[in-house]
Amino acid sequence: MRRPSTIEHMTDDAPAAGTQLPGSIGILGGTGPQGRGLARRFAAAGYQVVIGSRDAERAAAVAADYAAVGSVTGAANADAAGADLVVVAVPYDGHAALLTELAPKLTGKIVVDCVNRMGFDKQGPYAIAVPAGSSAQEAAEILPDSTVIAAFHHVSSTLLDDPEVEQIELDVLVLGEDRAAVEVVNRLATAIPGARGIYGGRLRNAAQVEALTANLIAINRRYKAHAGLRITDV
Amino acid sequence: MRRPSTIEHMTDDAPAAGTQLPGSIGILGGTGPQGRGLARRFAAAGYQVVIGSRDAERAAAVAADYAAVGSVTGAANADAAGADLVVVAVPYDGHAALLTELAPKLTGKIVVDCVNRMGFDKQGPYAIAVPAGSSAQEAAEILPDSTVIAAFHHVSSTLLDDPEVEQIELDVLVLGEDRAAVEVVNRLATAIPGARGIYGGRLRNAAQVEALTANLIAINRRYKAHAGLRITDV
Predict the structure, then answer these.
(1) Domain housing B56
(2) Smallest CA–CA separation between A32 and chain B, in Å?
(3) Domain of residue A55, CATH code
(4) A118 is a domain residue
(5) What is d(CA B233, CA A185) in angstroms, rounded to the nearest whole number?
(6) CA-based Rg of chain A, rounded to a whole angstrom?
(7) Which of A2-6, A206-210, B44-48, B226-230 is the least confident region?
(8) Residue B19: pLDDT band by 50, 70, 90 thresholds?
(9) Nearest of B161, B150, B173 to residue B72 by alpha carbon
(10) Does B78 or B9 have the greater pLDDT score?
(11) How close B75 comes to chain A (CA, Å)?
């Protein structure tokens, strides 16, 4: 079940810097629906997953739910940040404070921001405006010594966390400045059966990808669906 | 070739207000690539298309290119605005001024805004920020007596305007407040063979749909594609 540690089509050569797939994945805020769903799929694909939470005991309790799926442990967010690659799945409210606190632990790592800045009112979902433009750009400002990638915004946590769902029709848009890191996360996306990871542009174009979650929620409500995106002609 | 004038599944009853498909479609800025591509597909589906331009002679010359496809004429934008339904396909630069000038002619009509607010620099495409939040919201502010719908942002003008392309893998996201008008534009989208029109949320969620064009351009450049969107599970 353990994944190969380098990208398969590169095995003829020494792996390029940054292209190694992670052995362990920490998920900050991993006890929420998005974090749990990703934990399930990453663990099933053979990664060692550390679910992080403000409350280490709660993280351990959630991790126990996935004992039969693969290697999933629970820890405080600060310990989950020690993994090879770190996914940020916290609510937007605590995003900046947590990353500021954990910046030293995240130095030199790929940090995958999948935070959706969503608000809801009587008219339904909408994207919350943030000073940096997007959650991912905010992360990049706070973490200049990490490689920030934006991805996994549009996954349905319901489908991800349902063990009966064997395939998910979904392309994961992966945004970032570092091509090797984008490749790593593109490959990580294939841990979700049926999904592809597709480069979606630079971080300055992350705002609309994050905000599009509001449209997908509106679609879900209108059509009683778990809508996802596919990119055609790719 | 003439389309039925009411939505088929409603033929048992009198048509609800606003659900009638248009007989004629005016395309403001219709001599540009997006406008030409839409003109081709709308005309092929049996609509009477009026290509609008600042320069009526230029509009007539472009319309002549589509004489074999269907009913396509050229006119000044002010005359194209007299059609049953009006599509706005101008560059963002002239958007507000043109709609302000034509507001009286657009009263009571469905106005479909498909303007992409795009800029390009050395790093590639990006979305231009606008005070109203989106081009569609700007149109709605300028045209309080029209029914503004946002749609057709992600169509590849290259594929649309290529007569050899018989099917386009594409869902057209259709945003607006008025459900009947959304339905009309959903149906209009099916003039593009292979395409579906799908409700994509309220106009306040149009900004990210417009801006996502930058991501699709980035995808096109990386993968040498004419990328489009499909919404899964709908």
Answers:
(1) 24-223
(2) 23
(3) 3.40.50.720
(4) yes
(5) 24
(6) 17
(7) A2-6
(8) low
(9) B161
(10) B78
(11) 35
